[in-house]
Write a structure and sequence with these properties.
Strand order of the largest sheet: 1-6-2-3-4-5
Oligomer: single chain
Order of helices and strands: HEEHEEEEH
Number of domains: 2
Helix content: 25-40%
Number of strands: 6
Structural class: alpha+beta
Length: 161
Amino acid sequence: MTSLRSFRLLPLGIALGACYSYVPVERPATIPEGASIRARVTPTASQRIAPLLGLEQARVVDGSLVQRNGDAMVVEVSTTTSVGVGTAVQTLHQRVALAPSDVTEVETRTLDRAKTGIVVGVLAAGAIALAANYLKSDPGVDRPPTGSPPENRIPLLRLRF
Protein backbone atom coordinates (compact mmCIF):
# COMPACT_ATOMS: atom_id res chain seq x y z
CA MET A 1 0.00 0.00 0.00
CA THR A 2 2.77 2.42 0.89
CA SER A 3 4.66 1.74 -2.35
CA LEU A 4 1.46 2.40 -4.34
CA ARG A 5 1.03 5.78 -2.62
CA SER A 6 4.66 6.61 -3.29
CA PHE A 7 4.21 5.66 -6.93
CA ARG A 8 1.18 7.95 -7.24
CA LEU A 9 3.11 10.84 -5.71
CA LEU A 10 6.09 10.36 -8.04
CA PRO A 11 4.73 12.66 -10.80
CA LEU A 12 4.10 15.37 -8.19
CA GLY A 13 7.67 15.07 -6.93
CA ILE A 14 9.03 15.28 -10.47
CA ALA A 15 6.84 18.29 -11.24
CA LEU A 16 7.90 20.12 -8.09
CA GLY A 17 11.54 19.25 -8.70
CA ALA A 18 11.23 20.89 -12.11
CA CYS A 19 10.65 24.22 -10.36
CA TYR A 20 14.38 24.57 -9.74
CA SER A 21 17.24 25.14 -12.13
CA TYR A 22 20.99 25.52 -11.78
CA VAL A 23 22.58 28.86 -12.66
CA PRO A 24 26.36 29.19 -13.22
CA VAL A 25 28.23 31.38 -10.72
CA GLU A 26 31.12 33.53 -11.91
CA ARG A 27 32.67 34.05 -8.48
CA PRO A 28 32.28 31.10 -6.07
CA ALA A 29 33.39 33.33 -3.19
CA THR A 30 29.99 35.11 -3.36
CA ILE A 31 27.95 31.95 -2.68
CA PRO A 32 26.41 32.07 0.82
CA GLU A 33 26.95 29.15 3.19
CA GLY A 34 24.02 26.73 3.20
CA ALA A 35 23.23 27.26 -0.50
CA SER A 36 22.53 24.24 -2.71
CA ILE A 37 25.29 23.95 -5.28
CA ARG A 38 26.51 21.73 -8.09
CA ALA A 39 30.28 21.70 -8.65
CA ARG A 40 32.00 20.17 -11.66
CA VAL A 41 35.44 18.95 -10.65
CA THR A 42 38.62 17.97 -12.45
CA PRO A 43 39.41 14.29 -13.17
CA THR A 44 42.12 14.34 -10.50
CA ALA A 45 39.72 15.64 -7.85
CA SER A 46 37.11 13.14 -9.04
CA GLN A 47 39.52 10.24 -8.42
CA ARG A 48 40.25 11.60 -4.94
CA ILE A 49 36.63 12.09 -3.79
CA ALA A 50 34.90 9.18 -5.59
CA PRO A 51 35.85 6.60 -2.89
CA LEU A 52 34.55 8.96 -0.19
CA LEU A 53 31.17 9.12 -1.91
CA GLY A 54 31.07 5.44 -2.87
CA LEU A 55 30.97 6.19 -6.60
CA GLU A 56 32.98 5.09 -9.62
CA GLN A 57 33.30 8.67 -10.86
CA ALA A 58 32.37 11.90 -9.11
CA ARG A 59 32.79 14.52 -11.83
CA VAL A 60 29.70 16.37 -10.58
CA VAL A 61 29.21 17.01 -6.87
CA ASP A 62 25.69 18.01 -5.72
CA GLY A 63 25.27 19.22 -2.17
CA SER A 64 25.14 22.22 0.10
CA LEU A 65 27.97 24.61 0.82
CA VAL A 66 28.93 24.13 4.47
CA GLN A 67 32.04 26.24 4.81
CA ARG A 68 34.29 28.51 2.76
CA ASN A 69 37.96 29.22 3.43
CA GLY A 70 38.81 31.90 0.89
CA ASP A 71 38.13 30.24 -2.46
CA ALA A 72 38.24 26.70 -1.01
CA MET A 73 34.88 25.08 -0.24
CA VAL A 74 33.55 22.31 1.97
CA VAL A 75 30.48 20.70 0.39
CA GLU A 76 28.12 18.32 2.19
CA VAL A 77 27.00 15.61 -0.25
CA SER A 78 24.19 13.09 0.33
CA THR A 79 25.14 9.47 -0.32
CA THR A 80 23.23 6.23 0.14
CA THR A 81 24.39 2.93 1.57
CA SER A 82 22.85 -0.46 2.25
CA VAL A 83 22.30 -1.26 5.90
CA GLY A 84 22.46 -4.88 6.98
CA VAL A 85 21.16 -7.73 4.89
CA GLY A 86 18.25 -6.97 2.62
CA THR A 87 17.02 -3.88 0.87
CA ALA A 88 17.29 -1.29 3.65
CA VAL A 89 18.95 1.88 2.39
CA GLN A 90 20.16 4.74 4.55
CA THR A 91 21.08 8.27 3.46
CA LEU A 92 24.37 9.54 4.80
CA HIS A 93 26.05 12.94 4.48
CA GLN A 94 29.73 13.17 3.54
CA ARG A 95 31.72 16.40 3.64
CA VAL A 96 34.14 16.95 0.78
CA ALA A 97 36.83 19.66 0.69
CA LEU A 98 37.36 21.24 -2.74
CA ALA A 99 40.30 23.51 -3.51
CA PRO A 100 39.90 26.22 -6.18
CA SER A 101 42.11 24.15 -8.53
CA ASP A 102 39.71 21.17 -8.14
CA VAL A 103 36.64 23.05 -9.38
CA THR A 104 35.99 23.84 -13.05
CA GLU A 105 32.44 25.23 -12.66
CA VAL A 106 30.04 26.03 -9.83
CA GLU A 107 26.26 26.40 -10.18
CA THR A 108 23.67 27.36 -7.57
CA ARG A 109 20.16 25.98 -7.37
CA THR A 110 17.56 28.71 -7.79
CA LEU A 111 13.79 28.79 -8.09
CA ASP A 112 12.67 29.08 -11.71
CA ARG A 113 9.54 31.24 -11.59
CA ALA A 114 8.39 30.35 -15.12
CA LYS A 115 8.52 26.59 -14.52
CA THR A 116 6.88 27.03 -11.12
CA GLY A 117 4.05 29.06 -12.70
CA ILE A 118 3.48 26.37 -15.33
CA VAL A 119 3.44 23.58 -12.72
CA VAL A 120 1.03 25.49 -10.47
CA GLY A 121 -1.20 26.27 -13.47
CA VAL A 122 -1.32 22.63 -14.58
CA LEU A 123 -2.07 21.44 -11.03
CA ALA A 124 -4.83 24.06 -10.65
CA ALA A 125 -6.36 23.09 -14.02
CA GLY A 126 -6.30 19.42 -12.97
CA ALA A 127 -8.00 20.24 -9.66
CA ILE A 128 -10.67 22.30 -11.44
CA ALA A 129 -11.28 19.49 -13.95
CA LEU A 130 -11.65 16.93 -11.13
CA ALA A 131 -14.06 19.20 -9.23
CA ALA A 132 -16.13 19.83 -12.38
CA ASN A 133 -16.29 16.11 -13.12
CA TYR A 134 -17.36 15.38 -9.55
CA LEU A 135 -20.07 18.04 -9.58
CA LYS A 136 -21.29 16.96 -13.03
CA SER A 137 -22.05 13.46 -11.79
CA ASP A 138 -24.59 14.90 -9.26
CA PRO A 139 -23.54 13.01 -6.16
CA GLY A 140 -25.83 15.14 -4.00
CA VAL A 141 -29.15 14.43 -5.79
CA ASP A 142 -31.43 12.34 -3.57
CA ARG A 143 -33.35 9.76 -5.58
CA PRO A 144 -36.00 7.50 -4.01
CA PRO A 145 -35.36 3.78 -4.11
CA THR A 146 -36.82 1.98 -7.12
CA GLY A 147 -38.46 -0.89 -5.26
CA SER A 148 -39.56 -1.81 -1.78
CA PRO A 149 -37.73 -4.41 0.24
CA PRO A 150 -39.46 -7.74 0.85
CA GLU A 151 -41.43 -7.90 4.06
CA ASN A 152 -41.16 -10.87 6.34
CA ARG A 153 -43.62 -10.82 9.24
CA ILE A 154 -43.48 -13.13 12.17
CA PRO A 155 -46.59 -12.95 14.37
CA LEU A 156 -45.76 -12.67 18.01
CA LEU A 157 -49.28 -12.16 19.33
CA ARG A 158 -52.68 -12.98 17.79
CA LEU A 159 -55.81 -11.21 18.84
CA ARG A 160 -59.22 -12.72 18.01
CA PHE A 161 -62.57 -11.03 18.50
